[in-house]
Write a structure and sequence with these properties.
Helix content is 0%, strand content 63%. The protein has no helices and ten strands. A five-stranded mixed β-sheet has the order 2-1-9-8-5, with no helix packed on it. The chain has a five-stranded antiparallel β-sheet with strand order 4-3-6-7-10, with no helix packed on it. The N and C termini lie far apart (27 Å).
Length: 89
């Protein structure tokens, strides 16, 4: 069952239904799936992977915070941009 990811910066926002998100936490990469325990943590600059039913996208993010709620994950960051040539390499 998909959940909602909200990616917010002062310049823009992105909201999508996804199956998995992997992002850089301050203590290592975090993988979020449906039903993940509620969590608030800091995120560091790096690459966020967003996987949906028929897509896999990558975004570069800056410093920020992440909150995992039932059915929704919110990332607030100082900036983010879509990575072109999204092959994950």
């Amino acid at each position: 069952m998909p959940f909602e990811i909200g990616l917010y910066s002062p310049q823009k926002k992105l909201v999508k239904k996804v199956n998995m998100v992997v992002l850089p936490g301050v203590e290592g990469n975090l993988g979020i799936l449906t039903g993940h325990v509620q969590l608030i943590t800091a995120v560091k600059p790096g690459k966020i992977k967003v996987v949906g039913e028929n897509f896999e996208e990558y975004y570069n993010i800056g410093f920020g915070l992440m909150e995992v709620l039932p059915g929704r994950t919110v990332v607030i960051t100082d900036n983010f941009s879509e990575e072109k040539g999204q092959n994950g390499a």
